[in-house]
């Protein structure tokens, strides 16, 4: 019986039977698969078998990461100077659950927060005990850590987060907005027949609320109640004059997905009426790219300051047994983009491999290369069709090949006519040569890139009449059409 069934049943009498995972070194403890190869983008999965990841870039320039481990028995930390570096960064255990009593059950979804110069770790924990359901007596606790270097110093249990109900609560996140520090969390509220709803309140001390919480959302929409009625894992983002809270909904299998609450940045965040819920999920399973159950996200920025979505997802749809005990929710990342109205466009989970980029011709600001019906065009189109992976070139060292996220296994290829198409790799040397390019600084903007055709002199990818071709740019305008700005 999964924890959600347990929670629903616990309202009655019987307690869930729940096996625990024996403690083992999960693959995530070893070198991950996400490190950048040969100066290319970070690779997804970024960190294997780490779910519910919180990754943030600190003012010290480092990236910090914590996450749930498959054994649900400890709190871990990683630090690296780059996002890709998190994949192979040393993983430090800062706390292990006790063998009995409170906090001796499942340890879930930690978040590290610096409050008034001191580090605190928020996490959800069940209890150890003889009753099968003890591990699911999930409540939110706070560890107090050191000031300064989070890896140097002691951690101690500060206490349990005080909420209005003694009920299942988890997935706390803390953020400051307009000078107020808030905490947002998921909790089961007596009298509401759901597994969890989202609540928000100002944080008075690290474990106490500064006001009665406001209930932000209850899972009622079809995509929120698949398997279980869930709103959990909130994450905060302020951009473009608005504030956003993503949350995760439904069962933790391939139906798990992201929802979005939006408010004006100057609204009263403690008023439920300030928040608008997106009627549809904003980020869901993609059979095309092979990512299932994307959710429990956090937000950060990459080394260039570009917004990044962090989330977990599996490589497969069908799960044997309780999804909660399937260890393969891997940490993943991709860039986050925005619509003209300033709201985030999450697109689709981009799948395993290099984190993709978008390419804007310097000659046409505001549009992107996109593929459609086998052609590569410059213009407006669905975000996923504008995302291309820069992969190590099929022609070998010093070359790059471009693979559309929504056409996995196909590549951008030049034809003898100079046309450029998206074609399946036929494994021939000719294909490898025609689908490989030497990346150079932009012909008209050093901050951009240009792609010189292999084995052709002075021939570059360039946009002509809205379509990508290969040819010799003979003017500044043509050189601008052969220069691409990456976002
Ligand atoms: O990963 C453990 C729990 O499962 C997390 O706290 C929750 O967000 C998810 O559903």
Task: Summarize the structure in short.
With 487 residues, the chain is mainly beta. The chain has helices at residues 3-10, 429-434, 476-480, and strands at 43-44, 51-57, 63-68, 74-80, 92-96, 102-115, 118-127, 139-147, 156-160, 169-177, 180-187, 197-205, 208-209, 214-217, 231-239, 242-249, 257-264, 276-277, 292-301, 307-314, 330-335, 337-338, 344-345, 353-354, 359-361, 368-372, 375-379, 388-392, 400-404, 410-414, 420-424, 437-441, 449-453, 460-464, 467-471, 484-486.
CATH superfamily annotation of the largest domain: Glycosyl hydrolase domain, family 43
**Rounded average pLDDT:** 92
Count of the separate structural domains: 2
Compute the number of helices. Answer: 3
The CATH architecture of the largest domain can be given as: 5 Propeller
* Helix content class: under 10%
The molecules bound to the chains, other than polymers, are: alpha-L-arabinofuranose
Structural class: mainly beta
The residue ranges in which pLDDT falls below 50 over 5 or more consecutive positions are: 10-33
Number of strands: 36
The N- to C-terminal Cα distance equals 45 Å
> What is the CATH class designation of the largest domain?
Mainly Beta
Enter the CATH topology name of the largest domain. Answer: Tachylectin-2, Chain A
Q: Using the alpha-carbon principal axes, give the shape.
A: elongated
Radius of gyration from CA coordinates: 24 Å
